[in-house]
Structures are given as C-alpha cells and as structure tokens.
Amino acid sequence: MLMNAARSRLARGRTYLMYSAAVWLTACSTAGPSLPAAPASRAPENAGTAPLASASVTPVLTRSGAPIVQIIEQQNRLYTVAAPILLNNAVLCKRNAHSVTAFIAKTQYSYSSDLAAAAKQAFGLGERLQIMTVFPDSAASRSGLLPGDILLAVGDSKIVPGPNAERDAAKMVELASKGRLAISLTILRGTASMTVNLPLSRACAFDIELGNTDNVNSYTDGRRVMITRGLLDFARSDQELAYILAKEIAHGALEKTARPGMHAMIDKLMVNQSATGAAVRAPILQPYVPVSDATADKLALYMLVRAGADIDDAQSFWQRLATQYPAAKSNSYTALHPATPYRLSVIKAVMATIKLKQSNTLPLIP
Hints:
Helix content is 36%, strand content 15%. By secondary structure, it is α+β, with helices and mostly antiparallel strands.
C-alpha cells in the first residue's frame, strides 16, 4: 500500500507511500532471528485524535459483523509482518521496487460509506489524512512520525481535506520523491504543526490486503497481495504468517502478468469494498503449475532469510496446511497451490543451499 493511499482507484500512476504496502515499510535488521511481532499502535499522548487501538475503544460492528477495530488490527498485523520482507528484498523484485515511506494514513473516506461511520467512531477519522501506524525501526519512526499525526502538506503542496485527500497525498509524494532521497512533510500534532524530513526507502511495493472471507487462501495480482481472514487465523505466529506473505510476494515478483481471475477475486474480497457496489462473480482460478509454484517457494525462502526470518519450520508449516486443508477442499490454499510433496522437496533442497551460503557468508541471492 502506500499509505493505503493507492487503492484500486489508483491502479495507474499511484504512489507507494507505505505501508500499502500500503504505507508500510518497516526497516528491520537482516541479522535478527525472526520477524518482529506486530506492535500495539497508539496515538501520542498530546495528539488531539483517537488512539489507533485501545482497550477503551468500543468495537463498532461492520456489515459483516466484524468489529472495525479488529479489522484494522488484522490489517496492521499483515503490514507489520510483511514490512521486513518488502523492505529487504528490493533487489529480488526489481519490477515492483519503488521508493516508499513507512506508515499508514487514512481518512474516513478510506472506507466505503457503510464502514466510514464505524471508522470515524472507533478511530476519530475525519476529513483530514491521519497517520494510523508508523512502523518501528523505520525511517518514518526515526523521523519522529507518530500515530495520530495529521498530514497537512507534502513539501509546499497542501493536502486538501476531504474524499480526495488520500489520493492527492499519494500523487504529491510521488512527485516530491522523484530524484530525491527524502521528502518534507508538514504534520499537525495536537495543536502544534511541524515539519518532518522523511527519508525514502527502496522496497518491494505491494499492497497488502485482508480478504473478507473465512476461506483459507491467499492471492496476488502482481500489485496487491491478499491474505484471507481464514488463512490469517490459521497462522499460529507471525513467523508462519511471514511464510505465507513471502510466498505471495514472490509470486507477484515472478509473474509478469496477473493470472486470470486474480484481479476480480481480490476486488471481490476487499474488506473495505462498498456493500452497494456492483457484485463481482467469483472467478474460477486455475491451480499454479507445480514448477512455477515451487520457484516461488524458492524465492520466498531467500526473501525470508534476507528479512531476518527463521525458516526452519517452513516445511512443517506447509505440510500442516496441506493436511488440514487438502487440495480436494474447494477454495483452499492447497487447491490453488497443489503438488505438496514436490513443493516440500524443493523447499528442503533450497533450505540446505541457503544454510550453506550463510555458513560461507555468500550473497543470499537465488
């Protein structure tokens, strides 16, 4: 995403404000043993806005019956776990590499009309673009940005509050970042305005989306990566979630064109889609060819170790997923990603190669 500013309505010429990845990227050490757990985000004490997530926030039910607080927290978890993978692998996803920021910002208009009131009540979102999450150890965090900050301007360009604020800010960042290593942001914190110099990072620029279904699956259309609510719940830890995210990011980086039906599937399952919008027929997705699927497994493992993740449990995770949700189960992950024994054999061989490279301090490049 990029500030989640570039949704499907900005499919062309959009800016990667991070996280999305929405506006997202989190810088993290490649030497760390595992990916960081999703942090609990909160607004600064002196901010005149509602906290991003707090025990005092009353969950507001959306049309699907899920509290919007839960939806936002799930999206933040996806962004936070994906961030190190995206940030540390620009060299492995060259077609998708862009300069990005490292935070999520939204307005009440970031959601469809039936969700906007709930977002406003739960998080204080209104006409102005508000930072929801700043990723730890990122350039944005080191620059002093905080959840609850209101974005007023990018460089000398003021962000006009209203329905177009997110889109306009994305375009401003895109223009301001050309040929530069940093951009200037004017923010409002409480009643005080200030200017922040924000360094940009090179990263794999994928939007990371939450799929509004209990089906256990994940998708990518080359621009967006979607993890369904069912698969998110299946992952026992952030490490397991990282395995899933890396696999879809790898697919997105490898495939020059989106597989048939992927755009429509992701559009259909977007959490913030309008309840009154035109219905999208569920597309029939053809299973991945085993060789191309295993190639994505290989790239995913390299992406994970470069992001500091522990890959020792990767084989057991994919085996557990295939056993619990076999290919015979309609709309399951394994139905879309078949040939589990072959995939596991490739994963085992790649893991051995990676460990050999690590022991000999060789570049972690496939």
